[in-house]
Amino acid sequence: MQKNTSIKITSKKLNIQECYDFVQDVSCGGIALFVGTVRNQTQDKAVTLLDFSTYQSMAIKEMQKIADRALTDFHILKIAIHHAEGKLHIGDIPVIIAVSSPHRKAAFAACQFAIDTLKETVPIWKKEYFADGEVWVNAHP
Length: 141
Hints:
Layout: E1 5-10, H1 16-23, E2 30-36, E3 41-42, E4 45-54, H2 56-74, E5 78-84, E6 86-89, E7 95-101, H3 104-121, E8 124-130, E9 133-136
Parallel strand pairs: 1-5
Antiparallel strand pairs: 2-7, 3-4, 4-6, 4-8, 5-7, 8-9
Helix pairs in contact: 2-3
């Protein structure tokens, strides 16, 4: 792990304060924080829970690539990308991205880049559960 990145996949509860504390720095005037939460509805069905599966070693490498690119392309100081795996209930947090930068614009841009790229490239799969069944949201493991 690099001193300016914090990458984690865990079955334990994610901690917003841990991510905030990691990126916080007196040289930075902006911290952008994205917190994904499990919602109770998807399109036309009520969701009961989500189950995240990962190819952990590859996912960690891909998350580090995203962090490295964000550091270079957006000129940010620090970035934390944490993702949960396993079953999560309504209101639980599956993903946190925190970014610090001397200026807010770079922090916002890097944070959006990180979540958008994570969803496109990192081998993390989501299964949604409903009262009447379940479905893989993306290609499954």
